[in-house]
Specification:
- The longest helix has 18 residues.
- It is built from eight helices and eight strands, in the order βααββαβαβαβαβαβα.
- It has two domains: about 55 residues, Orthogonal Bundle (Multidrug-efflux Transporter Regulator, Chain: A, Domain 2); about 120 residues, Rossmann fold, CATH 3.40.50.
- A five-stranded parallel beta sheet has the order 5-4-6-7-8, sandwiched between helices. Strands 1-3-2 form a three-stranded antiparallel beta sheet.
- α1 packs across α2.
- It is elongated, with a radius of gyration of 19 Å.
- β6, α6 and β7 form a beta-alpha-beta unit.
- The protein is α/β, with parallel strands linked by helices.
């Protein structure tokens, strides 16, 4: 995704001339359109912000569609509300259990899945293996969630291909940077 200097200025709450100065000094790589306008690639802007200790706005995170799968309706409602407030750029969909989750993976096509470790029927570990083992879903970032953390369950999920195993309740301050790092890692690996 490419951003205009004015879009960057609005996003970072700085003046457009500050953005142009960063570009002119070579701090932010940009190219010119045939009309002479400058464009900055999203990942280059994220690298600039990180290297200068500036916060990265959530709108620059690469993951846009998130599917939360859990068998507890109260957890699903609370997580959806929390993410709507703290990460409005994410399109969040929920599924009540693994079977509904698999169906929504096919229709919603998420970039990432937050997956409860312990669910009746198919548990989160089995679902993680299914997602990672199918070529159509292997690209999906899988993050496990558990209310009963242990080193063993974390190790099992990581071996099954999950990016992490987080503890309930969900802490967006830990979760959102994980999404960004995973997105960057996957993009570099391609």
């Amino acid at each position: 995704m490419y951003l205009t200097t004015h879009a960057i200025a609005r996003l970072l709450d700085v003046s457009p001339s500050a953005v142009l100065t960063w570009i002119d000094k070579g701090l932010v790589p940009a190219f010119r359109t045939p009309g002479g306008h400058r464009r900055v690639e999203r990942t280059a802007l994220v690298q600039f912000l990180r290297s200068h200790g500036m916060p990265v706005p959530h709108q620059l995170l690469g993951v846009t569609r998130l599917l939360v799968i859990d068998d507890e309706p109260a957890f699903l409602r609370a997580t959806r509300r929390q993410l709507a407030r703290q990460a409005p750029h994410l399109g969040v969909e929920t599924a009540a259990g693994a079977v509904e989750g698999l169906l929504k993976v096919g229709t919603f096509r998420p970039d990432a899945v937050l997956l409860d470790a312990y669910m009746p029927g198919m548990d989160g570990l089995e679902m993680c293996r299914k997602l990672r083992g199918t070529p159509e879903t292997a690209h999906i970032l899988v993050i496990a969630l558990t209310g009963r953390p242990s080193r063993e369950i974390e190790t099992q999920f990581l071996r099954a291909g999950a990016a992490a195993c987080l503890v309930k309740p969900l802490e967006p301050a830990a979760f959102l940077p994980l999404l960004e790092r995973a997105r960057t890692t996957r993009r570099v690996a391609r």
